[in-house]
Automatic annotation (TrEMBL):
Domain Chitin-binding type-3: 199-245
Classification via SMART domains: ChtBD3
Region (Disordered): 171-204
Protein name: Cellulose-binding protein
Keywords (A to Z) from UniProt: Hydrolase, Signal
GO MF annotation list: carbohydrate binding; hydrolase activity, hydrolyzing O-glycosyl compounds
GO cellular component: extracellular region
Top-level taxon of origin: Bacteria
GO biological process entries: carbohydrate metabolic process
Compositionally biased intervals (Pro residues): 173-195
Length: 245
C-alpha cells in the first residue's frame, strides 16, 4: 500500500518540477531614459545584441556586482564598452527614469561611476510603482562616463543592473520619458480597462493582448506582453511590452 501511494506522489512532484523549470522568467525593470544599453538594444538603436533585445528588463544577478550584465552570460554584450553605444549629453543634475514591469519590494537604488557611488535612494522595503524617477547629481564628473545603476531587491539576494553611457557637461538632460512622480502609490482597487483594440491609437487605461497593434506618434507597434496601459508605458519607451512593426 505504501508503494502505491508513493508512486503518485513521486509522479506529481516530477511534473511540478518540470513546470517550474519550463516557466518563463518574470519581467522586472530597466532605465528607459537616458537610454540605457539594454534600452538601446531593445529599440534597435544598437543591433546584434542577442537575447537582451527581447529582455531589457531581465538583467538580474547577485547583489554587490559591478558589471552591466549582472554576471549573466546571456547578456554579456552589455559589458562591451566598444559596442557603439549611443552617448547622451547631460549636465549637472540628471533625471533617470525606470520602467518597472515587476514591482519587487526594494531596499535601495544605487548609482555608480567607476568605483564611486554618486547616489543612493533608500526605499526601506517599499514596493515601487510602475515607473520610478531619480535625480542624480553628476557635477563632480565630466566627459564621457559609464554610469552603473543598481536596483537592490529587499527580500531576495538579487539585484538588477543597468548601464547608461553619458557625456557629462555636454548639454541638458533629455526630456523624461516617464511621468515625474517617484514611486507612485500602488492602486488599491481594480484598474479600469477598455476592450483591446487593434490598429487604433495607443491609449492609457486600455487592456492590450499579445499581438495587438497600435499607433503612437505615427509609428505602429505590436504588443509583446499582455498588460493594461498606463502613462509612462508608451510604446517607444517600454520595449519589454511593445515592438515596433
Amino acid at each position: 500500500m505504501r508503494r502505491l501511494i508513493a508512486l503518485p506522489i513521486l509522479v506529481v512532484g516530477t511534473v511540478l518540477t518540470s513546470l517550474a523549470i519550463a516557466a518563463p522568467a518574470q519581467a522586472h525593470g530597466y532605465i528607459s531614459s537616458p537610454p540605457s544599453r539594454q534600452a538601446q538594444c531593445a529599440q534597435g538603436i544598437v543591433t546584434n545584441c542577442g537575447d537582451i533585445q527581447w529582455e531589457p528588463q531581465s538583467v538580474e544577478g547577485p547583489k554587490g556586482l559591478r558589471s552591466c550584465s549582472g554576471g549573466n552570460a546571456r547578456f554579456s554584450v552589455l559589458d562591451n564598452d566598444n559596442k557603439g553605444w549611443r552617448v547622451t549629453n547631460v549636465s549637472g543634475t540628471t533625471t533617470f527614469n525606470w520602467v518597472i514591469t515587476a514591482r519587487h519590494a526594494t531596499s535601495t537604488w544605487e548609482y555608480y561611476i567607476g568605483n564611486t557611488r554618486v547616489a543612493q535612494f533608500n526605499d526601506g522595503g517599499r514596493q515601487p510603482g510602475p515607473t520610478v524617477t531619480h535625480q542624480v547629481n553628476l557635477s563632480g564628473f565630466s566627459g564621457r562616463q559609464k554610469l552603473l545603476a543598481v536596483w537592490n531587491v529587499a527580500d531576495t539576494p538579487m539585484a538588477f543592473y543597468v548601464c547608461v553611457d553619458l557625456q557629462i557637461g555636454g548639454g541638458g538632460n533629455p526630456p523624461p520619458t516617464t511621468p515625474p512622480p517617484t514611486n507612485p502609490p500602488p492602486t488599491t482597487g481594480p484598474t479600469p480597462t477598455n476592450p483591446p483594440q487593434t490598429g487604433g491609437t495607443w491609449r492609457a487605461g486600455t487592456a492590450y493582448q499579445v499581438g495587438d497593434q497600435v499607433t503612437y506618434n505615427g509609428v505602429t507597434y505590436r504588443c509583446r506582453q499582455a498588460h493594461t496601459a498606463i502613462a509612462g508605458w508608451e510604446p517607444p519607451y517600454v520595449a519589454a511590452l511593445w515592438q515596433q512593426v
